[in-house]
Amino acid sequence: MSLETLDFAEPFFTVKYIVDEPEIVITDKTIVLNLAESPLYAAGMWLAPFQSIIATDITLFNVDKCVLVERFDDFEDENMLLEKVRGTWPLAYEIRREERLKGVEHYMSPKSAVGNIQFSMYHASTVPLNVGLHKNHVHLGGEEPQEVHTQIVGFGKMQQCREKDISTLFLEETMAPGCTHKPMFDAELNYPWHQYETITPGIFMAIEILTSGNPIPR
Fold it and tell me: Which domain of life is it from (predicted)?
């Protein structure tokens, strides 16, 4: 049993990673994301793997593996929060050097890694964001992860396309605070062409699970 506080989103949000706890008491408003292969029990319902909720004043049961994001709405002025984030986090292109990110106002937090799972947050600053359709995660050194994203602040949408062309869009999921999109990968970890797009400026959390268990590239 363990509870580890991750520092990648500080000083803006508190993120906790919990493993093998029979129950966890949630007091303040918190985003709860289940990362286990089994469901956890919350407020009379089962939370499936890769599903998330916003919870307040409840107890979570059967917590095999989950992430808690606290203080995600603990601010009076959202624009001021995002301005402070832009002054703290570098542009994602400066870290990842992916051509599709060049010239895009897309900011990236530090990363935290626990075993084969890595966590980071991104601030999508413009509408539209134009981050670019992609189907491979080249920043991970060639390995494809199990990846999902959870909206923290603001509103966005996860888009899936048949080709590298937004006119071939076939699925779109709206992302509000506390929402995690459905996994896009298949059993062989193949992805469709996909991208995150903004509805408003916002922040989302990326979770990447390397199923090989190899050390995670930085």
Answer: Bacteria
